[in-house]
Amino acid sequence: MIATDRATGADPRRIETPVGTFDIDPQSVIHFHEGLPGFESTRAFVLLSSPAIAPLHLLHHVSGPPASFLAIDPRLVLPGYRAVLSIGDRRRLGAGDETALVWLALVTIDPDQGPTMNLRAPIVINPERMIGFQTMPHNSLYPLRHPLALR
Amino acid sequence: MLVFTRKRHEAIMIGDGVEVRVLRVGRDGVRLGVTAPPQVAVHRREIYEQIREENRVAAQAVASADAIAAELRGRLGTSASPAPAHDAGDDRH
Questions:
Q1: Is residue B88 part of a domain?
Q2: Which of A9, A17, A86, B6 is 20 to 30 Å from B74 by CA-CA measure?
């Protein structure tokens, strides 16, 4: 990837994460304008993959206070998962009607259930604009902790 | 904290884009209508708090990434890492 001279442009940069070292370029930075609940000041993340953590991904901060999460495509576990996005949410992402969005569920370890994923408040990313946020649909029936029991 | 007395159908404005209106006053609760620009997120506070707490717990899981991933791959029977991108077939409301 060619480095650009845009305001945020920078050479690919090396970051250390709990799951290894990655070279990231500025184009791969995802902007969370409001951060995530509990991590409101962390506004820039990258989504990292590696064979060691597949099929998980790492949503890792690149600026602001440290914040790092394991994330998974919820449909890998629950193929019928149907996310709901309001018109307002879609507008916040800068997404048009046809924009294909990336959906991820954050992973937690529950003392009783083992690994679970948060289907109540999924992460949604518009890859065309590299904007993301954690959506909290008002009437969602999906649980905060859904067991990661893959079939 | 600003404190207002409002009757049914009366409202307050927050900034120039957010309106909070009293729709109904009952014995156990007050029904509010919130009108806000699409970029302003409106949530019940307890839901937001719950998700905030869940995110804090989730941030601890990274330390166990390899173990969780290995377990998942075992159940999947593959080491493939499908790309997360897909069209979610969103509902709109």
A1: no
A2: A17
Model ipTM value: 0.88
Q: What is the CATH number of the domain that holds A24?
A: 2.30.290.10
Chain A interface, best mutation among B54, B87, B91, by max A CB count within 10 A: B54
Claim to verify: residue B35 and residue B53 sit in the same structural domain: no
- Radius of gyration for chain A, computed over Cα atoms and rounded to the nearest angstrom: 16
- Count of beta carbons in the 10 Å neighbourhood of residue A90: 20
Residue B71 and residue B50 in one domain: yes
Q: What is the pLDDT along chain B (93 residues), one digit of tens a residue?
A: 999 999 999 999 999 899 999 999 999 999 999 999 877 888 899 999 999 999 999 999 999 999 999 988 887 765 444 455 444 444 443
pTM for this model (two decimals)? 0.83
In this structure, the number of other CB atoms found within 10 A of the CB of residue B41 comes to: 17
